[in-house]
Specification:
By secondary structure, the protein is α/β, with parallel strands linked by helices. About 50% of the residues lie in helices and about 10% in strands. The chain has helices at about 20-25, 35-45, 55-65, 70-85, 95-105, 110-120, 150-160; strands at about 15-20, 50-55, 90, 125-130, 135-140, 140-145. The strands form two sheets. The chain has a four-stranded mixed beta sheet. A two-stranded parallel sheet has the order 2-3. Strand 5 (about 135-140) and strand 6 (about 140-145) form a beta hairpin. Helix 1 (about 20-25) crosses helix 2, helix 1 packs across helix 3 (about 55-65) and helix 3 (about 55-65) runs antiparallel to helix 4 (about 70-85).
């Protein structure tokens, strides 16, 4: 039987997670304004006791290794820091078919659906990403693009400065 991860932020009304793209911008100094925004976002995310999925950390390792000019040891160190800083939501095997069904129902990429499925299963209310439909609520999880200026008030409420 699958159990929810005990979230440090569980006493908050809202628990937030984020997608790989934000972590990539966080380490990519060449990403200009996206990098600066991601750095500030990660500070606020840590203060708000955000959570990360196992999949997002794995995707970060893969994408950063392929596309970043950072040394592989630096990438590994960043991943270890993420793992030690944030609660990590595992991917239980029984969620894989649920994610597949979600991907079919909402015409999502399977890996995006898996992030949403794991988030929902752990009581996460909001996913920060620029890769899905901004403002949509899918299976009870709000999709919010943190780089969209129209979302500033919502983001400030979720992640106080």
């Amino acid at each position: 039987m699958r159990q929810k991860v005990q979230l440090r932020g569980a006493h908050h009304l809202t628990v937030v997670t984020l997608d790989t793209n934000i972590l990539v911008y966080y380490v990519d100094a060449d990403a200009g304004e996206r990098h600066a925004s991601a750095v500030g976002l990660m500070r606020r995310f840590a203060s708000a006791q955000g959570v990360l999925s196992q999949q997002v950390v794995g995707e970060f390792l893969n994408v950063a290794r392929r596309s970043s000019h950072l040394d592989e040891d630096v990438i590994r160190t960043i991943a270890v820091e993420l793992i030690s800083t944030f609660p990590i939501l595992p991917t239980p095997l029984d969620l894989l078919p649920e994610a597949f069904d979600l991907s079919r129902r909402h015409k999502l990429q399977y890996w995006d659906a898996l992030i949403l499925t794991v988030a929902r299963a752990n009581g996460v209310a909001t996913l920060l990403t620029e890769d899905m439909q901004d403002g949509a609520t899918i299976d009870g999880v709000l999709i919010l693009d943190p780089f969209n200026p129209a979302n500033r008030a919502r983001l400030d409420a979720l992640l106080p400065a």
